[in-house]
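One-letter codes give the sequence; backbone shape is given numerically. An example follows:

. . .
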Amino acid sequence: MCAVVLTLLLAGCSAAGPTGSTSQGGSRTRSGSVKGPKSPSSPYVSVAEIARSQATTAYLGMWRDMTKAGTTSDWNSPELAQHASGDALSAISRGLYADHLNGLVTKGEPKNVPKVSSATPAENPTTVMISDCGDSTRWLKYREDNGQLADDKPGGRQAITAEVKRFNGAWKVTRFAVEAVGSC
C-alpha cells in the first residue's frame, strides 16, 4: 500500500503541464513523454521526507482536535483519537475531564511552529520526534458559568516535545510534554 501511495505521489510530482509543454524535468515530445532531464535536481520526495511531513501533520492535528474539544471540555470526543494515542491521548482526556469537573472551557487557539528533531529509522521512519515553541497567549481557560477568565495567567511561549509514531499506516502522537510558560 505504501509503495502504491509513494508511486502515485512521485508520479504526481513529476507530471508537467499540458502535452508539448516543458518543465524542469526536461523537454516534452508531442505525446507528453519526457525526453531527458535539463538539470540534476530531482522532483521526487523521499520516503523519509513524506514521513516527516505526515508526522508533523498528525502533531498539528492533535492540537486542532484538542482545541475543538476544549471549547466544551469534551474529554470523550472521538476526534481526539484521530491524531493521538497512548499516553498522549490519556493526558489530553484527563486534562479535559479535569476542566469539565472544574467548570472550565478553553477559548481561542494555540500557535504551533513544529520542527522535526529526529526521525528513525532514517530511511523509512516509524518514529518522529518533534520540537515546538507553542504559544498559548490566545488559548486560555474560562469559567463556563460566567465566561470570565479562570485565572490571571496570561499564557505564553512553551517548549513542547512530542513523539509521533506510525501505526498501520497512520501517524499519531504517542507522548508529548509541555514545559512552563517562558521555556522558549
In short: The mean pLDDT is 83. Residues 46-178 form a domain with the Nuclear Transport Factor 2; Chain: A, fold (CATH 3.10.450.240). Residues 19 and 32 are 5 Å apart (CA to CA).
